[in-house]
Amino acid sequence: LLLRWRRRRALWRKVEEAQERQERSLVRMERAAQRFREQHPSVKVASILSLPLPELSKKLRDGSLPPDHVFYAYVSKALQIATETNCITEFLQESETQVRKAKLMEKHGLLYGVPVSIKDSIDCQGHDSTLGFIKNLNKPAAEDSVVVQVLKRQGAIPFVKTNVPQSLISYDCKNLIFGQTRNPLMYTRTPGGSSGGEGALVGGGGSILGIGTDVGGSLRFPAAFCGICAIKPTGKRISKRGIMSGVVGQKAVAAAVGPLAKDVESLALCLRALLSEDMFSLDSTVPPLPFNEEVYSSTKPLRIGYYETDFFTMPSPAMRRAVRETKQLLEEAGHTLVPFELTNVDYVIFNYCVRGMFADGGSSFVRKFNGEMEKGGVGLFFQLAKAPQWLKTLLSWISKPFVPRLSSIIRSMKENTVDEVWSLHHEIEDFCHQFIAQWKKLNLDVMLCPMLGPALGIGYPAKLSVAVSYTMLYNALDFPAGVVPVTLASDEDEEQLKGYKGYYQDWWDRTLAKAFRGSVGMPVAVQCVALPWQEELCLRFMKEVETL
Asked: Active site annotated at which positions (predicted)?
């Protein structure tokens, strides 16, 4: 008992030190911003913050806006949003040196002088990538991740790291070290996750461009919940070197790195900068595919598949309306919309996603929590992963008549043999080819899909792991998928929620109905999807949706 008490005490000391470091970071930001304001009282901060990224970067490159003016405007705004939402874990102090150097440098690089926020799990030299785990504190990265190196070569200035949920396997944003991040639009709502700190900071206007990761919707949830745009590219389009992962080594569900920003043009600018010779030379496993301007700027009418539901997670009234209204606007603009029938999404979620991510029965996932004081946000998966196989089998059998979805999740978390894992990977490949065949039979360019929303109340994502079906499908398929906010939840949507039953009418469906409630005025997005490696077409479609 004494040993355990001492261990807990040592852990708490590490947590307190990290929290003090976070506090010092914010104080540093405040002092830096104040010092700049005193030295440059005539700088119009509000007009700098109102510039969209393409315009801002143009002014930075042509010299009409000095990089330090932009940098300290964003430091000041980021500090305000961090105070309101608790989204920043660390100020990258070296960014101030970078700004001073930028003033003396040639103005090259597509992102010259642009301050960029970075998700906690993306390595920045000299800083921790914690994933919300105490054991990862005081282990600074030896070098920048490839994506951060490329950003710097393109002139960008990474200036803060942002909060994540413990382990990243969650679409809320809370851990024992840095606490809960709140949605900047409504503090009782989650900002989404796992790139939740990015969603809150960019959504609140404290960062003009953020970089996150996505293994089940971790870019798309925060963007949708915070009313901004994001794109999850094909898994290997952008380098993942130097990026910490929630479940290391699994190949069933593709993770990806991507940007979050206020508008689609900003995402395109970021991809132009990242898909450069810099990245291809730093990581030769990334296909050397530069950004295709011709595809992105094309104006030819599109043939668009669409669906309103995946028949697994019943869409909220606002989600359904978002797809219908967007479909109508696209048709009026001269595009062709074709119904797309989704089948067996339950099988995909349980047998490909859950089974694929926990193919070892969850033992490597459980090991990540060794020596930690909290297993927040992943309670169900953690308990199931810890259970012996005989108990999983028994629980799956007992729960099948009453809660079939729980039974399927338990069954999917069994330990697989190597042969079974290989068979699973082969099955996922087959499924992908069948999906593409259905897509090509309809002669589609892109697909319009629902996106979970509006933002759920804080704490609800931990109880609603099943609601990732709309996003995770495209990690299993490894298709590029972006989100664009298109409407706001209305009083009528709220009224219609009273009749929300769900497809299974189980505890999860009842909980989801509660989680959606009280969101009038919150943004609702749609998902825009393209075939693998067609990020530019995906962005072109997103731009069309955004414009309409």
From this structure: 119 (charge relay system), 194 (charge relay system), 218 (acyl-ester intermediate)
Residue 381 has pLDDT above 80, yes or no: no
- Report residue 439's pLDDT band, with 50, 70 and 90 as the boundaries: very high
The 8-class DSSP code of residue 497 comes to G
201 and 455 Cβ atoms separated by less than 8 Å: no
Q: Where are the domains of the chain?
A: 1-286, 297-348+425-547, 360-415
Residue 490 is labelled as binding a ligand: no
| pLDDT at res. 11 | 92
Distance between CA atoms of 236 and 258, rounded to whole angstroms?
11
- For 365, counting Cβ atoms within 10 Å of its Cβ (0-12 exposed, 13-18 middle, 19+ buried), the class is buried
On whether the CB atoms of residues 362 and 414 are closer than 8 A, the answer is: no
466: helix, strand or coil: helix
Task: Identify the residue whose tokens are 């939402």.
Answer: 85
Judged against a pLDDT cut of 90, whether residue 7 lies above it is answered with: no
* Record: fold of 297-348+425-547: Amidase signature (AS) enzymes (3.90.1300)
pLDDT of residue 3: 85
**Residues acting as catalytic residues:** 119, 194, 218
Residue 386, pLDDT score:
85
Distance of alpha carbon 331 from alpha carbon 114, whole angstroms: 37
Beta bridge partners, 118, equal 161, 211
> What pLDDT is attached to residue 378?
67
**215 in a labelled binding site:** yes
Same fold, 1-286 and 297-348+425-547: yes
Q: What is the pLDDT of residue 374?
A: 73
Flag whether 194 is marked binding: yes
Cα atoms in the 13 Å half-sphere on the side-chain side of 505: 2
CATH architecture of 1-286: Alpha-Beta Complex (3.90)
Average pLDDT, the chain: 96
Does 218 appear as a known binding residue? yes
